[in-house]
Specification:
With 180 residues, the chain is an alpha+beta fold. The protein has one domain (3-177): Pnp Oxidase, Chain A (Roll), CATH 2.30.110. The protein has four helices and seven strands; from the N terminus they run H-E-E-E-H-E-E-H-E-H-E. It has helices at 3-29, 71-78, 107-113, 150-163, and strands at 34-40, 46-52, 61-67, 81-88, 93-104, 131-145, 172-177. Strands 1, 2, 3, 4, 5, 6 and 7 form a seven-stranded antiparallel β-sheet that branches. Strand 1 (34-40) and strand 2 (46-52) form a beta hairpin. It is globular and about 60 Å long. The protein starts with a helix and ends with a strand. Mean pLDDT is 81; it is low at 1-13.
């Protein structure tokens, strides 16, 4: 295979992996409404806060409404690398996402993602001059997914307690590259 053909094949393979990784993340986070967004404060302290993930279908980017004057926006403007973590303990799903965040003030995108319920946080609605979006372009992610039922997990805990052997993960743990 020539060098050019080999590079083209690798590129198609990487695109396929990228698409599969995005699809896996989409499936895992689609029903989790809230995430924890972690930023870096000016003094180097990590700070996390809950954020409502927007209903847009995940395509490699996460979207969150924010007040443009919020401290997290200053933090992101100083250090764009962030972490977003999701948890759905009842289903034993945990996701940690690393990416680059930026403030977006595109009124068309804001209107597209807007839900009247957000008036609880933004009483002026779409007319709020400080209404903005925080976009996180996902670079990497890691997830832990245990498809077993609660009964199967309980049996595993009991078995570990009786035998003295560690329980093990009992599920899937993967690190993935989400960026193309």
């Amino acid at each position: 295979m020539s060098g050019k053909a080999k590079r083209k094949f690798q590129s198609m393979s990487e695109d396929s992996n990228h698409n599969e990784n995005v699809k896996k993340l989409r499936e895992m986070i689609k029903d989790i409404k809230f995430a924890m967004l972690t930023t870096l404060e000016a003094d180097g302290t990590l700070r996390s806060r809950p954020m409502a993930t927007q209903a847009a279908e995940f395509d490699g980017e996460l979207w969150f409404f924010t007040n443009a004057n919020a401290p997290k926006v200053d933090e992101v403007q100083q250090h764009q690398q962030v972490n977003v973590s999701y948890a759905k303990p009842n289903d034993q799903k945990y996701i940690s996402v690393s990416g680059t965040a930026q403030l977006i003030r595109d009124h068309q995108k804001i209107s597209e993602l807007w839900n009247p319920l957000y008036k609880a946080w933004f009483p002026q609605g779409l007319n709020d001059p400080n209404l903005a979006l925080l976009k996180v372009s996902v670079d990497k992610a890691e997830y832990w997914d245990s498809p077993a039922s609660p009964v199967v997990r309980l049996v595993g805990f009991v078995k570990a307690a009786v035998t003295g052997e560690p329980i093990g993960s009992g599920g899937d743990n993967q690190k993935i590259e989400a960026a193309s």
